[in-house]
Design brief:
4 helices; Immunoglobulin-like; alpha+beta; four-stranded antiparallel sheet; about 190 residues; about 30% strand; globular
């Protein structure tokens, strides 16, 4: 009888620990709080100086995770007048094993149109390591996004020729997707002034 109580309590403890681990992993996976601020580039400062509250546009991603599951993105800000698009991309460190590349092999980021043409290569403006994820604040220049355009984000690695021809990128913009005004917070306004 006593051993049944001990085994029962151990099983309850294992169950509780398992649930906590799963919940913790879910919260880590859904964390979009890193590198969300506008990087005060020359183009961003010029746009803010001339247009202030009207300078930046944003919208949510229709699907924030790439179709192959290797990376995700959030916090998109588009400066239409200067053709600058900023967003944060992240990947789980397990992507090195999935793609069979060495940790430290360079990934780079491209924006491509619906035909697969490279529109812009991203410049990494800031990075952050959080939990199992590497976050990158990316800046893309010379980007024009019209209402009917499709625009896709690709994580690229020349070491293993990724992405492959059949790889589908993460949709940054789809035809008919509405832009809304992005309102810089006080910290962003100060940096842009």
């Amino acid at each position: 009888m006593k051993s049944r109580k001990i085994i029962g309590r151990i099983l309850i403890l294992v169950f509780i620990v398992g649930v906590l681990v799963i919940l913790g992993r879910i919260f880590m996976m859904d964390d979009n709080g890193s590198l969300t601020k506008i990087i005060p580039t020359d183009a961003a400062r010029q746009a803010y100086a001339s247009l202030e509250k009207e300078a930046f546009l944003t919208h949510k991603f229709s699907a924030p995770i790439a179709p192959d599951g290797y990376f995700s993105a959030h916090s998109l800000v588009y400066n239409k007048d200067h053709g600058e698009l900023q967003l944060t991309a992240r990947y789980n460190e397990s992507v090195y094993g999935y793609l069979d590349v060495e940790d430290g092999d360079d990934f780079y980021w491209e924006l491509r149109d619906a035909e697969g043409n490279t529109i812009s290569v991203g410049k990494v403006a800031d990075t952050e390591q959080k939990y199992f994820y590497r976050h990158f604040r990316l800046i893309f220049s010379d980007v024009t996004v019209e209402e009917g355009d499709s625009l896709f984000l690709f994580m690229c690695c020349d070491t293993v020729a990724y992405p492959k021809a059949e790889t589908v990128g993460l949709a940054v913009h789809r035809p008919g997707q509405d832009w809304k005004r992005y309102k810089p917070d006080s910290e962003e306004r100060k940096a842009l002034s």
